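Hi V.,

Quick status before I head out on leave. The structure for the redesign project is tokenized and pasted below; the design run finished overnight.
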């Protein structure tokens, strides 16, 4: 292949045609590069090694879980024992002796007593309203018979004539 240009045509004798360039590449073994390739080879994933590591971690975590479960059951049994003793303590001693335990307990007891009094008052009010409603309902049911008599006093015997009845 040859390039020709108008300027190059003038200098034909002075130029040489350069054709077919070939490049040779050679590599040199560097000891530092070999170390890097070995470390890369060591980083290759080994499933067997990963499995053993994972299995060891699983055994360790299982033992921890077992220990925590035992500790949890122990604490729950202690809670149930303490709840049982607190219930028996309240059942044995009257409510008047309990507030002597502490100021916060006393305030809690006073609050609960006030709440009980409010609930009792509300219950009596609701019971009275229920009784009044029941009385009114009974009066309405028994009063309907006398109301029929009062309304029928001024009528003739043709009581069967109501709306829609045509019996001439």
């Amino acid at each position: 292949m040859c390039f020709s240009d108008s300027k190059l045509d003038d200098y034909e004798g002075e130029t040489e045609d350069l054709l077919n360039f070939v490049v040779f590449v050679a590599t040199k073994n560097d000891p530092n590069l070999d170390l890097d390739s070995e470390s890369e080879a060591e980083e290759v994933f080994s499933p067997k090694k990963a499995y053993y590591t994972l299995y060891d971690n699983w055994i360790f975590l299982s033992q921890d879980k077992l220990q925590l479960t035992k500790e949890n059951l122990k604490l729950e049994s202690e809670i149930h024992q303490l709840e049982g003793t607190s219930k028996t303590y309240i059942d044995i001693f009257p409510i008047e002796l309990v507030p002597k335990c502490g100021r916060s307990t006393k305030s809690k007891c006073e609050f609960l007593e006030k709440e009980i009094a409010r609930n009792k008052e509300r219950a009596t009010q609701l019971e009275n309203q229920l009784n009044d409603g029941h009385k009114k309902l009974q009066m309405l049911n028994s009063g309907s018979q006398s109301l029929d008599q009062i309304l029928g006093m001024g009528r003739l015997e043709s009581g069967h004539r109501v709306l829609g009845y045509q019996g001439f």
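Above is the designed sequence. The longest helix spans residues 103-152.

G. will cover questions while I'm gone.

Best,
W.
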